[in-house]
Amino acid sequence: MAIERTLSIIKPDAVAKNVIGQIYARFEAAGLKVVAARMAHLSRQEAEQFYAVHKERPFFKDLVDFMVSGPVMIQVLEGENAILKNRELMGATDPKKAEAGTIRADFADSIDANAVHGSDGPDTAKAEVAFFFAGMNVFAR
Ligand code: UDP
């Protein structure tokens, strides 16, 4: 199995609920290591660029408004099949449809305030890690 890296964001709703530690515990229990992390309050421009793929979607403005509404915790997770594993831990985009025991089922309130982001494939993982951590030391653990 391949060791992968993926980008994870704990979104403003989950940071406001003070559940960063509970979400990190789930990564750790699943064998995912945090190899880089930083807290940030995204600018509008950063949020718009990060979600540029959605810019024609009707929810784009609300999504950007939400992502800049408070601090986020951004991390690179590493482990076997990290990309898919993180997506499984997150659960479906809409928390009402997320499987019981997933992060979104347990901590998200709605499809827009849905607690976490995770890269959805190898190409996006690479681009998203570079987006937030380019030029920074991302350690091997
Ligand atoms: N989103 C939304 N309304 C929708 C669909 C998506 O607000 O109808 C937001 C939601 O925060 C989601 C993000 O846009 O996490 C990106 O959507 P995507 O389909 O990529 O879902 P994800 O990969 O985050 O599960």
Automatic annotation (TrEMBL):
InterPro entries referenced in this protein's UniProt entry, alphabetically: NDK-like_dom (IPR034907), NDK-like_dom_sf (IPR036850), Nucleoside_diP_kinase (IPR001564), Nucleoside_diP_kinase_AS (IPR023005)
Family recorded in the similarity comment: Belongs to the NDK family.
Lineage: Bacteria, Pseudomonadati, Pseudomonadota, Betaproteobacteria, Burkholderiales
Listed GO MF terms: kinase activity
Catalytic activity: a 2'-deoxyribonucleoside 5'-diphosphate + ATP = a 2'-deoxyribonucleoside 5'-triphosphate + ADP; a ribonucleoside 5'-diphosphate + ATP = a ribonucleoside 5'-triphosphate + ADP
Matches recorded under SMART domains: NDK (SM00562)
Keywords: ATP-binding, Cytoplasm, Kinase, Magnesium, Metal-binding, Nucleotide metabolism, Nucleotide-binding, Phosphoprotein, Transferase
PROSITE patterns reported for this sequence: NDPK (PS00469), NDPK_LIKE (PS51374)
NCBIfam families reported for this sequence: PRK00668.1 (NF001908)
Enzyme Commission number(s) of this protein: 2.7.4.6
Positions of the catalytic residues: 117
Domain annotation Nucleoside diphosphate kinase-like: ranges: 3-140
One matching Pfam family: NDK
Gene3D superfamilies: Nucleoside diphosphate kinase-like domain (3.30.70.141)
PANTHER family referenced in this protein's UniProt entry, alphabetically: NUCLEOSIDE DIPHOSPHATE KINASE, NUCLEOSIDE DIPHOSPHATE KINASE DDB_G0292928-RELATED
Entry protein name: Nucleoside diphosphate kinase
Residues annotated as binding ATP: 11, 59, 87, 93, 104, 114
Purpose: Major role in the synthesis of nucleoside triphosphates other than ATP. The ATP gamma phosphate is transferred to the NDP beta phosphate via a ping-pong mechanism, using a phosphorylated active-site intermediate.
Requisite cofactors: Mg(2+)
Compartments, as annotated in UniProt: Cytoplasm
